[in-house]
Amino acid sequence: MAGKHAEASDDRAFLLVVDESEELHVALSFACRRAKSTGCRVALLYIMEPGGFHHWMAVGDLMEKEHRAEAEERLKELSAKVLEWTGSMPVLYIREGSVRDELLKLIDEEPSISGLILGAGTGPKGPGPLVTALGKMSGRLRVPLTIVPGSLDEEQIKRLI
């Protein structure tokens, strides 16, 4: 029975936005456990925000190439964790633009995305700008939004799944 469930939902994916925050690791652990238990995949989205060097074309091109290489390296690192934790490679996306706008576009364009999982910051600045913005507009998303508290540890995550 579990095999049939996994086959039926093979094309569904839980999407995470890749950044450098501590709460990403908690959200990634949660997403991997959830994906494995439901037969879904994990999808990782890295968004490169445009730089301000359009008037210096050569500098802008070099910075874009460096940023792209950083994005690919970060996704490679996280993909290894996803593979280890779920047994399957994640779906990878790299986009350039506003984080919120590109995220919303991808969710609208990609029918396989069945949920968005974000980690909430625990510091004095609040849950983070993306969590705050999307929380206010979650009724407009076509997929469920899961906000994972950044303070959860592995044992707490295990009990939730």
Question: Which key terms come to mind for this protein?
Answer:
161 residues, alpha/beta
Instruction: Identify the strand order in the major beta sheet.
Output: 3-2-1-4-5
* Uncertain residue ranges: 1-9
Taken as a percent bin, the fraction of beta residues is 15-25%
Helicity, in percent? 40-55%
Number of β-strand runs: 5
Overall form: globular
Mean pLDDT metric: 86
Structure description:
By secondary structure, this protein is an alpha/beta fold. Among the domains are: 8-15 and 30-42 and 54-92, no CATH class; 119-153, no CATH class. Helices cover 49% and strands 20% of the residues. The chain contains 6 helices and 5 strands; from the N terminus they run αβαβαβαβαβα. It has a 5-stranded parallel sheet, with helices on both faces. The longest helix has 30 residues, at 57-86. It is globular.
Layout of helices and strands:
Elements: H1 2-8, E1 13-18, H2 23-38, E2 41-48, H3 57-86, E3 91-96, H4 99-109, E4 113-120, H5 129-136, E5 145-149, H6 154-160
Quick recap:
The chain has 161 residues and is of the alpha/beta class. The chain is 49% helix and 20% strand.
